[in-house]
Structure prediction request, 218 residues.
Amino acid sequence: MATYLFYLGVGPFERLNAPTGKVSMSILAPAGRSGEGQRALEVARAGLEELERYYRIPYPLPKLDLIAVPEFPFGAMENWGAITFRDMQLLIAPSTPAGEMRYTVATIVHEIAHQWFGNLVTPSWWTDIWLNESFATFVEHKVVERRYPELKSVEDFLSIWTRWGFMLDSLPTTHPIVVEVGDTREVNQAIDRLSYGKGASVLRMIEGYLGSERFEAG
Ligand SMILES: [Zn+2]
Prediction:
């Protein structure tokens, strides 16, 4: 296990357990708010099942915790078996608008997709970190499209990620998808929306060329 995937959380968390399944799955929320995690727990369970089908490899750990962290500075982080989310990404009121719901479902599936791409298989050095984000973004949309076709994830992929790829590539500051990293202090410069958008769009092109069956078979 790569050290950047280790997580230790301390705080007055409250746990909401999924009732069934071979993987023990829970939402951990600030005290008094675990009930708001019910929808996320359902999405995570469905996403995990669909990802196991897509990868054809069982989820490798006995448990998966999804942890809502107030004021978490990023959308989410894919720590192995203990994914952290900004609380508003995970704790969803039943009245949440459809547009926001799409983003929440995509974020949950994206982070669980990393449990294979990035965690089970980790680049040996940061130069290849684009593979983590490109594959997680690509697979996230495949899985959301299959499980929640009403969310029209493919349209989101094209209008968000492919558009970002084209837009950033049109700027003088564009760079190759693969960025050489010499020192760990350079990692944040090696990963940006181009890594996600153009990287995932190139994977989609390769899938289009090979056909999804051959692509998924490896
Ligand atoms: Zn990611």
